[in-house]
Amino acid sequence: MVSASATKYGKVPDDPSKARDLRPRHTARVTDSDSEQEDTANLSERELAKKKWVKRLNWLWRKITAAFWVGAACLMIWYTNFFRVIWESPLVNRTYFYIALACLMFNMSLLFYLAIWCSSVKGIEDPWETHNPKAIPVMAVVGLTTVVMFFFAFWPVWGIMTLAIQLIFFLGFINSGHFLPSGTPGSILMFLIFFGAFFTSELIPHEGLAHYKPKPQSLR
User: Fold this and answer.
1) Residue 87 and residue 79: Cα distance in Å, rounded?
2) CA of 163: how far to CAs of 27, 147, 149, 179, 193, in Å?
3) Rg (Cα) of the chain, in Å, rounded?
4) Which of 24, 46, 52, 152 is the most buried (most CB within 10 A)?
5) 36 Cβ partners below 8 Å, 6+ apart?
6) CA angle at residue 200 from 156 to 85, to 5 degrees?
7) At what angle do helices 94-112 and 184-196 cross, to 10 degrees?
8) DSSP for 80-112?
9) How many helices (H) and strands (E) would you count in the chain?
10) What are the distances in angstroms from CA 166 to CA 27, 44, 98, 144?
11) What is the pLDDT of residue 215?
12) Which stretches of the chain drop beneath a pLDDT of 50?
């Protein structure tokens, strides 16, 4: 029979040199690649071919979805002649518009700092939330403010359609990254696409087909 003193546990010493009699615990670290290789090793040739085709179809579906939203954004720009209307229409609420524009430029400047200056110029490979932990929350708050201010600014111009315009433009801009190269060239092209969209009004032959027009004032 084991005595009570033999089964009594002592406190683990804080000094590692005094803990030489303790047996270290060995934990097996399994990575995703290792588990994926084990799963692949247990599959038959037919199942491997099926898995490969599933990956290809998923890749194709992501590209089709991205192309849809990019095309929808381009069509919306053409249909509304967005960038001409927001500058020329007297119905735009200029107070909200300028606040939203300032917030947008702030976010784009911060994005340029993180994506180009920190990642490409300074060569920081850590995630943004590691070397600039406050950047993402600040961008989220400013981005939400931008959406709200643009909504109130454009409501007199497009009404409830403003929500659809904002959503389609956001998804189109985000999904355009699927067709851009990775790294610094892709980041630079993303900024060129964003600022180049402001000049699309020069290529559209009409003044916009969806916005409200100011009521003509009656002559007294």
Assistant:
1) 16
2) 52, 9, 12, 26, 22
3) 28
4) 152
5) none
6) 15
7) 170
8) HTHHHHHHH-TTS-HHHHHHHHHHHHHHHHHHH
9) 8, 0
10) 50, 48, 16, 12
11) 76
12) 1-7, 9, 24, 26-30, 219-220
pLDDT number for residue 179: 92
State the amino acid at position 1 in one-letter form.
M
Predicted TM-score (pTM) of the model is: 0.74
The answer to whether 159 and 43 are in contact (CB under 8 A) is no
Query: Which of 131, 152, 128, 151 has its CA nearest to residue 140?
Result: 128
- C-alpha span between 187 and 183 (Å, rounded): 6
Report the C-alpha gap between 100 and 169 in whole angstroms. 15
From the CB of residue 210, how many other CB atoms can be counted at a distance below 10 Å? 16
HEC profile for 13-61? Answer: CCCHHHHCCCCCCCCCCCCHHHHHHHHHHCCCHHHHHHHHHHHHHHHHH
Cα separation, 141 vs 107, in Å, equals: 10
Query: In this structure, are residues 171 and 122 in contact, taking their beta carbons and an 8 Å threshold?
Result: no
Query: What is the token pair recorded at 125?
Result: 């490979």
Distance in angstroms (rounded) separating the CA atoms of residues 84 and 208 = 8
